[in-house]
Design brief:
The protein has 396 residues and is mostly helical. It has helices at 2-19, 28-47, 50-62, 66-79, 84-96, 100-113, 120-128, 131-151, 169-184, 193-207, 212-224, 228-240, 243-250, 259-265, 269-281, 285-298, 303-317, 323-343, 349-361, 372-379, 381-395. Helix 5 runs antiparallel to helix 6 (100-113), helix 13 (243-250) runs antiparallel to helix 14 and helix 15 runs parallel beside helix 17 (303-317).
Length: 396
């Protein structure tokens, strides 16, 4: 009897040890931090409902505070671990924070819970992975979307459907574009990669004939197949779908009613950089400069944009009667690219090597009017913004 009591007592102690966090080896401050975090987690769960936690998550997302958004979204998931909406939201927040491993875990859990519904998780998993794994996820996402699309009643021969449904023809086209990019990059050496790339792009254009992304990727594919004339035709079709809108916006005062509409039709920033590269390849330097200057106006701390502007001016200097002016401009852009390279701690050694090579060809010396003083606004942009905002407030 006494032995049985001892065994029960031992089991209770064992359960107690496994049920309480093991603080051995931690400093008093670390133990206190863990206790406070556990207490905050418990208080949050008791104080807020899932709906309230998601509302706070959305609030922080609207303010681009992804760290706080993740905290509230995680608390919501603690309350409802199998809520697909919360899993999708948390996965996307983790991707914004650059935490690919955490995002992968979240999306894979969503896949386990709902493998045949919800294409977005597969597209995100495709972005996280590469080569064959990425391709498999993109293809599964396409399968889910196309199946849902085919099951929807078509009204008067319409080819699109509501955003509230599983996806849109725009989503399907974008997914085919993702497949084509895999064959253009990671799997470009695979047998039949060119044919599979073209097939995916043809499908993308079937679902969205005027898709800037699909048209531009078709241009890239044709250039890679050494069909420059056909490639240029697709490139110009792509530009025609969004460049006039950008030009209209630049010609208007900011804050007009049309500005939000125009911004919604522009391709993503990162996809307009390859457009400029293709324009340089076909030697349409003026149009390339226009695209790059528009990008610079949106964000003046992207090294590649400064570098490409310098490269364009360098190439123009070889063909222009005003060689000196283009060389001066090239030098200015490239010096700023080099300065940003150090400031942002970039690791693209090939880009830096080409910048230094071009600067060497240009003589490497600063041209008149290309002093360090001109670079100052690049470093002090925040101060200038604060000062200008204060001036506006005083004037008001």
């Amino acid at each position: 009897m006494g032995g049985q009591a001892k065994r029960k007592s031992s089991k209770r102690k064992q359960r107690g040890r496994t049920g309480v966090a093991d603080f051995s080896g931690l400093s008093a401050q670390d133990r206190m931090t863990i206790r406070m975090q556990n207490k905050a987690k418990k208080n949050t769960a008791e104080k807020y409902s899932t709906a309230q936690l998601l509302e706070k998550t959305e609030e922080y997302l609207d303010n681009f505070n992804f760290e706080m958004a993740q905290l509230f979204c995680q608390r919501a998931l603690d309350l409802e671990p199998e809520n697909l909406q919360i899993l999708d939201m948390l996965g996307n927040i983790c991707m914004e924070l650059g935490n690919a491993e955490k995002a992968k875990q979240v999306f894979l859990k969503a896949v386990d819970l709902s493998p045949d519904k919800g294409h977005a998780k597969y597209m995100c998993l495709g972005q996280i992975h590469c080569k064959e794994e990425a391709l498999q996820y993109f293809q599964k996402g396409l399968e889910v979307m196309i199946c849902a699309h085919q099951s929807q009643p078509q009204v008067s021969g319409a080819t699109n459907f509501s955003d509230e449904m599983e996806g849109t023809t725009k989503d399907i086209s974008a997914a085919f574009c993702s497949v084509s990019e895999i064959y253009l990059t990671d799997l470009c050496m695979e047998q039949g990669a060119g044919d599979k790339c073209k097939e995916a792009l043809t499908k993308a254009l079937e679902y969205q004939p005027n898709s800037p992304e699909a048209l531009q990727l078709m241009a890239s594919y044709l250039f890679s197949m050494e069909l420059p004339q056909e490639g240029k035709e697709y490139l110009m079709k792509s530009l025609a779908s969004w460049l006039p809108s950008m030009q209209k916006t630049e010609g208007q005062a900011h804050g007009t009613d049309d500005e939000d509409l125009v911004e919604s039709t522009l391709p993503p920033y990162e996809s307009r950089i390859p457009a400029a590269k293709l324009l340089i390849e076909v030697e349409d330097f003026e149009l390339a400069t226009e695209v790059l200057e528009g990008l610079l106006e949106e964000d003046d701390e992207v090294i590649q944009v400064w570098y490409l502007l310098g490269w364009v001016c360098y190439l123009q200097a070889k063909e222009s009667d005003d060689e000196a002016a283009f060389k001066d401009s090239a030098r200015t852009y490239l010096r700023k690219a080099k300065k940003l390279y150090s400031k942002l701690r970039c690791d693209d050694s090939a880009l830096l090597e080409h910048v230094e090579q071009i600067l060497g060809d240009l003589g490497g010396e600063a041209a008149p009017g290309d002093s360090d003083a001109e670079d100052a606004p690049l470093e002090n942009v925040e101060d200038d913004f604060v000062k200008s905002s204060e001036d506006e407030a005083m004037e008001a």
